[in-house]
Amino acid sequence: MRIERLDLIAYGAFDGHSLDGLGRAGVHVVHGPNEAGKSTALSAFDQLLYGIDHQSRYAFRHGNRTQLGARLSAAGGVALEIIRRKKRKDDLVDGNGDPLGEGALAPFLGGVDRKTFTTEFALNSDELRKGGRLLASGEGDMAQLLAAARSGLLLNAVLARIKTRQDGLFLRRGRIPAINASLDRLRDVRKRVSEAMLRPDQYWDAEQSAAEAKRRLAETEADLRAAQRLRGARHHLLENLPALARCRELEEQAEQISAQGPVAPDDIRTQLPELINQRSARTGTRSTHAGLLEEIERQLSETGRDDALLPHAAAIKRLAEGIAAILDELERRDSASGEVADKRVRAASRLRTVHADATLADEGLYRIPEALRGEGQELRDRGRTLWDNLAHARDAVKRCRDKHERLGKELSALPAGEDVSQLQNAYASIPGRLEEKLNDTEDTWKKRDRRFRQARDRLGLPELPPEGVLKLRLPDQERATGAERDFRDLEQLLRDRAGELDDAQCRLATCRRDLDQLVTDDAPPTLEELQAQRAERDDLFARFVDDPGMLDSLSEAVRRADGTADQMLRHAERVNRRADLSREIADLEAAVPGHRAAVDEVLAEQESDQRRWEALWEGYPAPAPDIGQASKVLDAFDQLQTVARELQDNRIELEGLRKRLNAHATRLRHLLRLGEDAPTVTDTARDSVVFAEMVETARGRLDEHQRIAQDRAAVQRDLASAETDLEEAESAQADAENALAVHDGRWQRFLSSAGLAADRGFDVALTDLEDLSLVAADVDAAEALERELQQSEQRISEFGTLLEETFGACGRDVPASVTGWHDAIDTLARNLQEQRDGAQQRKTLLNNRANLVAQVAEADAELRGVESRLLDFSARLNLSSITELEAAAERATTFREKSTALANIRQTLPAGGELDRLREEAKKTSTEELADELAELDERIERLETARTAWLERRAERRRVLDDLDGSAAAARAEAEIAQICAGLAEDAEEYLRLEAARIAIQTCMEEYRNSDQEPVLARAAAMFAQLTCGDYAGLEMSDEERPSIRAKTSTGTLLTPAALSEGTCDQLYLALRLATLERHAVAGNALPIVVDDLLMSFDEERTEAALRVLDSMADRFQVIVFTHHKHVVEGAVKELPGGRCHIHKLPS
């Protein structure tokens, strides 16, 4: 499959950019500077073929409008136009926008999924360096290297992660991993369980000691609480003593204030200060306003009443505003008279330059319509264009005539063509890649022959040809499977019988050993001894009620009686156990011979099956295999016969290809006249080269003939085109001449309309019209100035009349000259403003006087009201003056302060009977006595707390001793911890086993891939490695180790490990392996484009060119696209690759 065109319609920073021409044979180099979007274009390949990611980082600009397009082609000429859109549904459409299912791409993808494409067909510099480092590290054997080359290092990374996780779970001599740590904890906990046991002989004393500690602790805590309560009460009294004293003091001060005289009520106390302040303020206001009234009367008497100019204020304002404009008009009037004369003289002079005898009275000569001037400009521009067109047409006729003559000479000089139809038919009939297919077929035959010999040798067969192998007849798979199944059944039966025999013998030995241990000479206690000890115990117990001092003797008697009973019970159990063991030994001695006979019977049946098995393989030319290996041998033999049949088919195909090659070679020799002696193909490599040279010779002759024919046809086409161009140029010249003649007639009519001479040219005539327009402008300006002079004279006359009338009404004299008007008018305006200011000042003083009179009256009324309220307050308290009233209010304020302070103190003290009790106790004691009592209480509490702490420690210690004597709780906790540890161990062990199974499975797959693909991949990689290193290394070989690793062979024959190679050479070795693994896709017919990015960064110039040649050698089987931002890669590709095999595509900056 090839991508002939990639459209970056709306993707990343691209908008409407296309990479066209990607389907041509050879290497395609996509070049662009940094930030040109190289990585974006590279990512577009897998996004196009397999869908745009919903969270694509290349949708930052276009969002949901992100889309890609392409034209795909496959073998057989199948082509498809597609567009991939960023949508969850119908994201793939054709060129018309109709939805396509993903199945439409199946013929092009050939079953290759996205992961395979990105890990095998795409390669960048980072992955190349990782592969090179894997080789140099020496950690990868051939299986890992092949898997890495095929999967893009993914499997090796997975193996590394599995190993890291396994090491975190378990190490053989480790202590930190999870499983190791859990095992250590399990041993410690089990040790604690074995140590936890009950000791009853000390339990009674420990329990009594713990109870005593608990009782003494309770007594100490009760005494401590009583002492703390007493200390709290005495401390509470000490805190309240100052408040109680202050309370008595405030009560005495309140009684003294009441005895001094009347105390003003709250309403008089709160209102009196405000009333006193109001009386003082009103008295001051009245005094202040009286002084202000006297000052206003004085100012009114001093202010004059001259207002004669006020009735003429409007006329004076007009004079003041208009005097400046009138003086300017007087000045302009003097200068405008001379300007009018100058404009008329200039206009008359310009008019005579166009019409020598004309005057300004002849308005028809210089007032030209604007449309006529526009027509003149248009005719001038059109005339110039027509003259230019005529000159260009004459030049074109000359050029076309010269070209026609030159092409005629070239056609005469070209050679005539020859008939090459037979050679062309013979060349077209040669199948594509015939010699390459012959080489591939012969290589395949050699590989299959080598596989045939290896498979035959693995089976241990003699030197048999493929036909001999196909004639051999072996037992069928069903009989072999049945024999193998019977053999395994017998093996299992033998294991079962032998196991039963071993179990019986082991059990018999165990029973005999246990019976020997139970046999002893010690006589058991008698019943009479037990009865005597119990009687002694009962007698001591009866006497213990009267004499508690016999407790020790009673305990000893109980112990002896219980020990004797236990000893008699254990003896009875041993007797029963000896009887059971004796019976079991007799049964086992009888059963052992039967088990042994069953084992011998199974062994005899196995020998019989072995003889029958060897009889089945009488026709096999090698020793009969073991029964357990029969299926594998038969599978290997089937594979050997399959290879033998393939080898025969391959030989037939090879002979057919050789015959076809000889036939085509003979035909080409005849048509190319190279001689008729065409030897039969025997040496495929040499004859393929000769045939390829003949094909190239034929293609060269056909290309030469085609080039000559194309050149002659091209010249003939150019000659016909030149004749047509000459005719068109001559016609254009005639049209230009006709158009110029028509224009001359229009120009003459224009000159007549403008009154100009008929010999005037374009520029002269338009200059005359411009001068006439200036004449008209000067005449119009002079007439406008004359009208303005008349209007100015009228305004000056009106202003003089207004001046005389206003000055006369105001009793002022009009200045004799115009120059004195401005000063006289300014003086009159200032006098008017002074009269206005005096009138305004009188009005303000009168208003202020009226306001002050009203404020004085208001203050008198308020002062009378305040004094009336003060007299009422004095009457309520039977006081004779305001001074006494103020003293009563002061006593009320002091009394209120004392009362408030007393209330605040009482809020801090207890209420009711508690307050009375505190007052009584306060009378009986002092602060010093309370301090001494509290000090004694603190010492007592400290002693009690020390005692409580000691008894707490003793109780805890005695409880701990008691708990240690009873180990059941600790044992239970330890057993629970053991269960928890075992559960965790089971989970970790299960995970470790899963990881181990995954590791073995991956390594097995890698090893199988190495066994099947090592030889073809290694051969192809060796050839590529030699090319990539420019012959410094001759190839690759495998070591003789159990897990073979790769070795690089230098040109001198020295074998080097990858670790001995340079960094760049390791990269080139990994690249050779990676490219070699892709050949299987070409064989399978699912070759997708190879896309590489900055792959040659660590290559020097010579090896860069070699790598480009290697990629070019694959470009006929794969589409090869190289992304780079290095110019030397582009230059090397252009320089090194053949013509037509290097295609450069530039990305925009």
Automatic annotation (TrEMBL):
Highest taxon of source:
Bacteria
Which residues does the UniProt record annotate as the domain YhaN AAA? 1-203
- Note the coiled coil stretches, chain numbering: 203-230, 637-664, 712-739, 775-802, 829-869, 927-954
Q: What InterPro entries does its record include?
A: P-loop_NTPase, YhaN_AAA
Q: Which UniProt keywords apply?
A: Coiled coil
A Pfam match: AAA_27
Question: What name is this protein filed under?
Answer: YhaN AAA domain-containing protein
Q: Which organism is it from?
A: Actinomadura rubrisoli
